[in-house]
Design goal:
Strand content: 5-15%
Helix content: 25-40%
Number of helices: 57
Strand order of the largest sheet: 25-24-23-22-28-27-26
Length: about 1850
């Protein structure tokens, strides 16, 4: 029973506080004046009576009514029913400030002030929510007042305040206030169910289904919700409706349905809320960025962008939407029916309201189904303590990833739900029945709309019956005011009531209540039903795999083998078992099987068994998901203290010391769940034992009791609790507390076991973690040490690090204290017990530390588990170990080939072995962990000098959890090592290893690199003060310097000790202060004559003359040193020695080619115009057009202006700049005049003097050779557009050119290719004979960036699942192929210019990067000499080494250049050569392996060739001419070229069998990106032997390795991708034949010929006749060549490329991209003659007709020679031999190509004394053959036979 109304209040306008701004209200009277003890008067009622503020108005308003809700400090809600009317303000009161309160202000002193009306409110305060009753009561009081009825207001109010009604029970109560009124109040049957009236239906009507669902989800996930409406009562109804929808959850945050204007700042509260405000305050909502605003009048819900609302999971969302639409719009289902049902109207608002609530009630039943099975009862007495296991609930339901449900379970509403509904013995309601009994029905009815609707209506009927238990309600009788009564002019004010009368009535009623017997409410408590167990709902997501049975069998068998000590059998099954443990079922099976082998809580194992069991536990715990936490980790927790091994006398090691490195042990929620679970089991056992004392129970009852759950036991105890004596009650309380206390001690021990590391002396707090709240974020620990994470988590609370953090023991104690505090406080443990626990914990931890010390000590002495023997790597001569091998695991990276994957085969990686650091390489050598591949050896290595980047990784090994943090080492040779260190490797050793790598990678001086220190002890690092290694070479360098002093004369030259200069100094414009030689700019020409130097030191100059570039200049006809000295005027160019002392340009060679007419002194001035003083010099000349190729650096800014200035332009101030510009122009003009067809003409030339032979291109585009097509590009203004990438002409499909008309256009004699950015704004002078072509070109920074991306694309560190990071996407983003395209495009166009008679000057950047690339490629394409082995070496030596490409700087070879980073300019050039090689495989003497070899060794620092940045630096170190001296160590090659020469004599590894060049061939490769291929050098690797570029390592030591040093050998012949060298297992045909020839010669006792000699013999015999036959060549079994003159460009069919051979060093390296098959031949499709050439024995030949004929050679003046001809009708051939007995075919004519056979005439050189009719001609599609028979008769017979053969065809 409860009071209907607690207080009646009269609130009016406060006229005393009307000064300024809004008015205020005041409480005029309150009844009763004395506060009730059980319900204090709520403060601030006057604010809620007028939520918009107290205002005076000009006209009387109609009375209004609404209910506001106030919440007190105890979270009790007070319903304030406000009835407001307006009274006239008495005119006698001063009105000077009325205008402040008047809306329509009238400011006139002479007009009488208008009549004003003030609001007054009747307020009824109650704890009950009976809105209509309140409306009627207040309306009655107002009616009595306004109509002046004859009823005393005091008695009415007194009766109202003394009215007592029941709260619940479904009873009806008739009340009367003594004014002739009658009301019937219906109480709900069950007050647990909310009463909603029509509010829910109204809310759906106002906002719609989806908006309401969004608000529903927002409220459940604790967002801020704000309702807007112009109606206060609508706001209250909407808030009430939202709370009703949330049942069975109760809202626990701020709830203010009507918020007064004065309290609007509440909206800025950080906590969630549900608030309603008047829509007039909408403008004040603009700043609220985290509030969801629902406009009830407009029907909209506005969700800010920053808010994400977790929505209902599917299928619940769709089902709820469907059910709501069926309820709200039942006609929707039949809207499309042809004959819809006649009556289908929606239910009334009241019924619709309950149906909507029923839908939401069903939803909650589905969401919370099985929740009672996850309740843990911790205490039963004196009060039940219940905890909900959230993780178990979500995991069992398979809803771990559902964001909505996770947030709901973590919210305060659900915590209140558990505390109120968790008790197993309490009154039940509709929701309990749904969850317990209707779940199966709900699940079965899914998808059936009619059944769902039927169930909804059943639930709604129960909800309606709860609110309206009696359908026939007695009629209310309430007096209402007369219509319009509030508008009467003359109204009295509301009378002042007599407080005494009202108080007397209240006191009388109170006294009666005291004397009346207390009403006893019979509580209908019962045992709450559990519902279906959640176990029936597991595995909805298909967790169980199809082959799980087989996997479980593997797990069981493996464990059985281990415990039966069949270790070998177990070892075979172990990898399969560890893979199986990735499945959840296998993990559970593991725990069950291990549990079955524990006897009396202990299982003592031997070392091997212990190791295997620990590995299995670690694997099962690895990547522990929340579901595994309460399944696997919980099951393993008792086992880790059961399995152990004996280490010595009295020393036992348990499994827990080996499985500590898992995050689950740091999760406080896990420990709490485990603790509460164990406590629950013990509590259940306690009461089963207590109840088991009754002897009257039968055996059947006893069994049933044993099967009861803990909650059922608790419910029974709660039912019996009142019947027990106080002594028994206290005894049970003590027993329960004892259980909790003992479990707390037990878990303190368990935590100690799993938190204290085995080696407690080490400070393992290495990782700092940002841990906020240990309870809520305990899953976020990412740490290597549990104690570390614990300590860090405590320190975050105080905000500073304590010194105790370093103490592991204190950290563990603090963590356990925190745990104990939490669980014991929740479990109701007394303070005395808690203090005792805290006192004991440090002792427990200290005792365990002492035990662990002994275990750690013994485990160190104990022989470790036998690990695989470390395999030592083979080393080069002179290569020495810097560090012994560190035991590591090599783990897979992003390349899938090594892990099986789509290519098949067992996983080669991960592999276990060791990593070695030598003076030359970083090497991993080991064996695969996978048993099926364990017999193989895995080698992965790269040179230390190519080391690019390291990165620390935390890789958890798949099989062994003992590995520490690892390293990822990346190399610029496209290699990647991801290694994790074994537990035996100390972290100090890892640091030493890293430091050694960095020390070797970046030595202080270049002399400290491996190429210099080879053969020395690694400790003997070369210092600057050390004794010089090569005194003779040093002397030579000093002699050069001395001669320079004599020669230069008065100029002072200093010779300093060499210190590597910084590149900042080297980049200065002039060469006067760069290094140890200092020369002033004004050098006298007379002092620089070379003759003085030659006389001083002839040997030095002879070395210069012998340099490769000088030999090449002589070959090109660019002059010799003798010609240059005598100044012969016949030659247009000469060799100058102006730079012999490197005084003009440090980075140029000593001898340079310049025009004959240019003086050396002029060169001094010209050099100042160019960056780094790199002035234009000639580097190549076209032998046909005599056009020259020049190279230089880019111009300085001023020099650009001078270059474009006209010679005749007036100069205001002639200066040195002008003279420099003139000298520059003179120089360029001299270059133009050097070309024959430009020398005699002036002005711009038109190439009109070109002969037709010159007009035809001698090169080849695509697959055509000698087709006579004109060259490709329009070469005037179009050249610049082409080079700048602006294609004005549409290219052909493959990137080939179009025919153009450029020959008719005027063309420049010299084109200068310059940078567009540098030449911007410059205008060409029309009188000049050269043309500047500005182009956009990438610089070194772009190359560096592109290379990094290319490495990550080709060798990714981890497999990417992101489709945006696929291999091809990454390759495209790297821009590498785009840069290759640009280089090839520029190079081909320069080739075109040169081939058509224009000289070209490449003048880009500093002249040593892109310039070198373009110049080298142009020469390679134009001159076939550079496509030979010797020529390519010469090209690299000349253009890259002599002309000063900065190999040391770009390769970051020393500490000084470390910061600049690795920039592979030379590698990019090699890749371009590789692209050309692929397109023209017959034009190169060297193989693709040759390019890979150079790409590898130019960064390996094994050879000295690619060290230092210029010839000047090499002379300084005495390297320039050292190859002439004696080598002390014949194996330590200093030059890569010597090494290549030596190797080429032994094996054809660098030779291209397809090499068949054509004279004067100019190559024009396709350059489009679609024509470019990714070099397999970037992607290919051989794990069986490492990189195949150190020949000695792969072959020479193979047979010397002792069997004990390598993995067991096998006889199986298996080829695995990425592991085997396919070129050895599948050698190409030619290598196989050469190998067989050597074997046969060895068997016959002959000395085998060298492979080159054998090859040359075969080639010579084949070419003898081929030359006479022109292009029609015969084929042999070696397929040297065939009739493929039209198919010389490769179509992806070519020989395997050479890399490493067979046992005789003859086989070639297979090109991974080839797809050639035996039928496709070597170079394409075979001709008919080729197909038949395999039948060569004379006995089996078909000879239709044969005889001797004279045949004339193919050339013009070739002689006639007699040959033995055979006409073969079967093969359709005319073959010829040297003689009748010869079996080797010298040539043949394919008769299918014959067009006619006619009589011929005698020609010059024909045989004498032969009649004219003996000659006849054979015309084919390709040429005409001239034959001569012995006489005319014989000739006629030949003609007839051939004609007959043709007709037969």
């Amino acid at each position: 029973m409860a009071r209907l109304a607690d207080y009646f209040v009269l609130v009016g306008y406060d006229h005393d506080k009307r000064g300024s701004g809004d008015g205020q209200g005041r409480i005029i009277q309150r009844f009763p004046e004395k506060e009730w003890e059980d319900n204090p008067f709520p403060q601030g009622i006057q604010l809620f009576c007028q939520p918009s503020g107290w205002h005076l108005v000009l006209e009387r308003k109609s009375p209004n009514f609404f209910v506001a809700v106030l919440t007190d400090i105890n979270s009790e809600r007070h319903y304030c029913a406000c009835f407001t009317f307006w009274e006239a303000v008495e005119s006698s009161q001063p009105q000077k400030n009325h205008t402040n309160d008047v809306d329509d202000e009238e400011d006139s002193k002479f007009v009488q002030a208008p009549q004003l009306f003030a609001p007054k409110s009747l307020v009824l305060v109650s704890q009950l929510d009976h809105t209509e009753v309140f409306r009627n009561c207040l309306g009655l009081i107002y009616t009595i007042y306004i109509d002046s009825l004859n009823f005393p207001l005091e008695s009415v109010i007194g009766n109202l305040l003394t009215c007592i009604i029941p709260i619940t029970g479904g009873s009806q109560r008739t009340i009367s206030l003594g004014a002739g009124d009658r009301q019937v109040i219906q109480t709900p049957v069950n007050d647990a169910l909310p009463v909603s009236g029509c509010s829910v239906a109204l809310l759906l009507k106002q906002l719609g289904i989806n908006n309401v669902l969004e608000l529903f989800c927002a409220a459940l996930t604790e967002h801020k919700i704000l309702f807007l409406s112009s109606s206060y009562q609508r706001l209250t109804e909407a808030c009430r409706a939202l709370l009703a929808l949330m049942f069975p959850l109760k809202y626990s945050f701020t709830y203010i349905p009507i918020l007064p204007a004065q309290l609007l700042e509440v909206l800025s509260s950080p906590t969630p809320f549900i608030i309603g405000i008047h829509s007039s305050f909408r403008a004040e909502m603009q700043d609220l960025l985290d509030v969801i605003v629902a406009d009830l009048d407009g029907g909209t819900v506005l969700i800010p962008e920053c808010i994400h609302i977790s929505v209902l999971p599917e299928p619940h969302l769709l089902q709820t939407q469907t059910a709501l639409s069926m309820v709200l719009d039942p006609e929707l289902e039949y809207a499309d029916y042809a004959f819809p049902p006649s009556s289908m109207s929606a239910s009334s608002m009241k019924f619709q309201d309950k149906e909507i609530r029923a839908v939401f009630l069903r939803l909650f039943a589905q969401l919370f189904q099985g929740y009672r099975w996850c309740l843990q009862i911790i205490r039963i007495h004196p009060e039940p303590v219940i905890r909900f296991h959230k993780v178990a609930f979500l995991a069992q339901r398979g809803l771990l990833d559902v964001d909505f449900l996770t947030k709901v379970l973590e919210g305060m509403a659900f915590a209140r739900f558990v505390s109120e509904r968790g008790s197993p013995y309490r009154p039940c309601d509709l929701f309990d029945e749904l969850v317990a009994n209707e779940i199966e029905r709900i699940r079965s009815e899914e998808g059936n709309a009619q059944k769902v609707l039927k169930h909804v209506k059943e639930i709604s009927e129960q909800l309606h019956r709860n609110e309206n238990p009696y359908p026939a309600v007695a009629m209310h009788k309430i007096q209402k005011p007369k219509e319009g009564s509030h508008l009467r002019v003359q109204q009295n004010t509301f009378p002042h009531l007599d407080e005494g009368t009202v108080q007397w009535i209240v006191d009388q009623a109170t006294a009666k209540l005291k004397n009346a017997p207390p009403a006893v409410k019979a509580e209908m408590k019962c045992m709450v039903p559990m519902g279906p167990p959640s176990a029936t709902m597991i595995d909805q997501n298909g967790i169980v795999l199809a082959n799980s049975a087989r996997r479980l069998e593997v797990v069981r068998n493996c464990i059985t083998y281990i415990f039966e000590n069949k270790i070998l059998e177990a070892k075979k099954l172990l990898p399969a078992m560890l893979r199986a443990l990735k499945g959840r079922a296998a993990r559970q099976c593991l725990t069950q099987e291990l549990n079955s082998h524990v006897l009396q809580n202990r299982a003592v194992l031997d070392n091997q068994q212990f190791d295997y069991i620990v590995r299995m536990m670690n694997c099962a715990l690895q990547d522990c998901t929340p579901l595994d936490e309460h399944l696997v980790a919980a099951a393993l927790l008792p086992l880790v203290t059961a399995f152990c091994r004996k280490l010595g006398s009295g020393v036992t090691q348990f499994a827990y010391s080996c499985i500590q490195e898992h995050l689950v042990w740091t999760n406080l929620q896990f420990w709490e769940a485990m603790f509460y679970s164990d406590v629950q089991n013990h509590i259940r056992a306690l009461y089963l034992e207590v109840d088991g004392d009754h002897p009257s129970e039968t055996g059947c009852d006893s069994i049933k009791k044993q099967q009861r759950s803990a909650l059922e036991v608790a419910a029974e105890q709660l039912r019996m609790w009142p019947t027990r004596s106080k002594e028994k009650q206290q005894e049970l309380i003590d027993k329960e507390e004892s259980i909790v206390y003992s479990q707390a001690i037990h878990y303190g021990n368990r935590l100690t076991y799993l938190l204290l590391p085995l080696d407690t002396s080490k400070n393992r707090l290495l990782r700092s973690t940002a841990v906020g709240d240990l309870e809520s974020v305990s899953n976020s620990f990412v740490t290597n040490s549990i104690a570390g994470s614990v300590a860090e988590s405590y320190d975050t609370e105080s905000g500073f690090e304590d010194a105790e953090t370093s103490d592991v023991a204190n950290s563990v104690v603090r963590f356990i204290n925190r745990f104990v505090d939490k669980v014991c406080t929740e479990s109701g443990v007394s303070n005395d017990h808690l203090k005792a626990l805290h006192a004991n914990l440090p002792d427990i931890v200290q005792m365990h530390i002492e035990t662990l010390d002994a275990v750690h000590r013994e485990s160190k002495r104990h022989p470790p588990i036998q690990k695989p023997k470390l395999l030592r790597p083979a080393l080069l001569v002179g290569e020495e170990l810097v560090m012994e091998g560190l035991r590591v695991n090599l783990v897979p990276d992003g390349r899938e080939e090594s892990v099986g994957g789509s290519l098949g085969g067992p996983p080669i990686l991960p592999a276990e072995g060791a990593i070695f650091l030598t003076t030359y390489r970083i090497i991993f050598k080991g064996a695969p962990i996978e048993t099926l591949a364990g017999e193989q050896t895995v080698i992965r290595s790269f040179p230390v000098a190519s080391f690019a980047k390291e990165k620390k990784i935390n890789q958890q090994s798949r099989t062994d959890q003992d590995s520490q943090d690892g390293l990822q080492l990346r190399s610029s040779t496209f290699q990647l090592m991801k290694i994790t260190f074994d537990e035996e490797v100390a972290s100090e050793l890892v640091e030493i290893f890293r430091k050694h790598i960095h020390k070797l990678r970046y030595p202080q001086y270049v002399q400290s690199t491996f190429a210099f220190t080879v053969g020395q002890s690694p400790k003997q690092v070369v210092e600057s003060k050390q004794k010089e290694k090569n005194p003779s070479l040093r002397t030579m360098s000093k002699n050069i310097m001395k001669n320079a002093k004599k020669t230069i004369g008065r100029q002072y030259v200093t010779r300093k000790k060499y210190t590597p200069p910084t590149w900042d100094q080297r980049a200065t414009p002039h060469g006067d202060n760069l290094d140890q030689i200092s020369v002033s700019e004004e050098i006298e020409q007379s002092a620089l004559t070379l003759s003085t130097t030659i006389r001083s030191d002839k040997s030095t100059m002879s070395h210069m003359v012998e340099r490769a570039c000088c030999r090449d200049y002589q070959r090109l006809g660019l002059g010799t040193l003798s010609n240059s000295l005598t100044r012969s005027k016949n030659e247009p160019f000469r060799i100058t020695t102006v730079n012999r002392m490197y005084s003009v340009c440090r980075s140029y060679p000593s001898l340079l080619i310049i025009p004959q007419t240019i003086q050396d002194s002029t060169m001094q001035r010209i050099s100042r115009c160019y960056r780094q003083n790199r002035f234009p010099v000639v580097c190549w000349r076209n032998s046909r057009t005599k056009a020259v190729l020049l190279r230089s650096a880019g111009l300085h800014g001023k020099s650009v202006v001078g270059l474009f200035k006209s010679q005749n332009a007036p100069a205001a101030d002639p200066s040195q700049t002008d003279s420099t510009s003139l000298a520059q122009e003179k120089y360029l003009q001299a270059v133009i005049n050097s070309m024959p067809h430009y020398a005699d003409t002036g002005g711009r030339n038109t190439l009109s003097g070109f002969t037709s032979a010159h007009m035809n291109s001698s090169g080849k585009w695509g697959s055509m050779r000698g087709s006579g097509r004109l060259s490709a590009y329009s070469l005037n203004s179009d050249v610049g557009l082409r080079l700048a990438g602006k294609d004005t002409l549409s290219p052909q499909a493959n990137g080939g050119p179009l025919d153009s008309h450029y020959l008719r256009q005027p063309r420049a004699g010299l084109y200068i290719i310059g940078e567009k950015s540098q030449l911007k704004g410059a205008k060409q002078d029309p009188s000049q004979q050269w043309e500047v072509v500005p182009i956009d070109i990438f610089d070194a920074r772009h190359v560096k960036t592109s290379f990094k991306k290319l490495m990550k694309a080709c060798v990714p560190s981890s497999a990417s699942t992101d489709p945006n990071q696929s291999y091809y996407r990454s390759l495209e983003e790297s821009d590498w192929l785009s840069q290759l395209h640009k280089l090839l495009q520029v190079s081909v166009l320069v080739v075109e210019l040169l081939d058509n008679g224009s000289s070209v000057l490449i003048s880009l950047e500093d002249g040593w990067d892109v310039t070198t690339q373009v110049v080298s490629l142009v020469q390679l394409l134009s001159d076939q000499h550079y496509r030979t082995l010797e020529g390519f070496r010469l090209l690299v030596e000349k253009e890259w080494l002599s002309f000063g490409h900065r190999f040391s700087h770009r390769g970051a070879q020393t500490m000084a250049s470390q910061s600049s980073g690795f920039t592979p300019v030379f590698l990019q050039f090699l890749d371009c050569v590789h692209q050309i090689h692929l397109q023209f495989p017959m034009e190169f003497e060297f193989s693709l392996h040759y390019l890979k070899f150079l790409a590898y060794h130019y960064v390996s620092n094994r050879f000295r060739t690619f060290l230092l940045d210029s010839d000047h630096e090499r002379i300084e170190l005495g390297l320039m001419y050292e190859e002439k001296g004696e080598r002390k160590n014949q194996h330590a090659y200093k030059s890569v070229w010597d090494y290549i020469d030596r190797l080429s004599k032994k094996t054809p590894v660098f030779f291209n069998y397809l090499y068949a060049p054509e004279d004067g061939e100019v190559l024009r490769p396709y350059g489009n990106i679609s024509n470019l291929k990714v070099w397999d050098y970037y992607t290919h690797e051989t794990l069986s032997e490492g990189p195949p570029y150190d020949w000695e390592l792969v072959y020479s030591r193979r047979e010397q390795v002792d069997d004990g040093e390598r993995a067991p050998r096998t006889q199986r012949k298996i080829v695995w991708p990425c592991y085997d060298n396919q070129n050895k297992t599948e050698p190409d045909a030619i290598s196989k034949l050469l190998e067989e020839m050597q074997s046969l010669e060895s068997e016959l006792g002959q000395v085998p010929d060298k492979w080159k000699e054998t090859w040359d013999k075969i080639k010579t015999t084949q070419r003898t006749e081929s030359k006479q036959e022109g292009k029609h060549l015969s084929s042999s079994s070696l397929l040297m060549s065939s009739s493929l003159s039209h198919h010389r460009r490769s179509q992806c069919v070519y020989l395997h490329e050479a890399a490493v051979g067979s046992t005789l060093n003859l086989s070639l390296d297979t090109d991974s991209s080839t797809t050639s098959t035996p039928s496709s031949g070597v170079m394409g499709r075979k001709s008919t003659s080729t197909l038949y050439s395999q039948f060569q024995t004379s006995e089996s030949e078909h000879r239709s007709y044969e005889g001797i004929l004279y045949k004339r050679g193919g050339a013009l003046l070739k002689a006639w020679k007699p040959r033995w001809f055979v006409l073969d009708k079967t093969k359709h051939q005319l073959r010829y031999y040297d003689s009748k007995s010869d079996t080797d075919v010298k040539g043949l004519v394919d008769l299918t190509e014959v067009e006619s056979v006619t009589l011929g005439t005698a020609t010059l050189g024909a045989p004498k004394n032969i009649e004219d009719k003996a000659f006849f001609d054979l015309k084919t599609t390709k040429r005409v053959y001239n034959f001569c028979a012995q006489d005319s008769q014989s000739a006629q017979q030949w003609i007839d036979k051939i004609q007959s053969c043709l007709s037969d065809a």
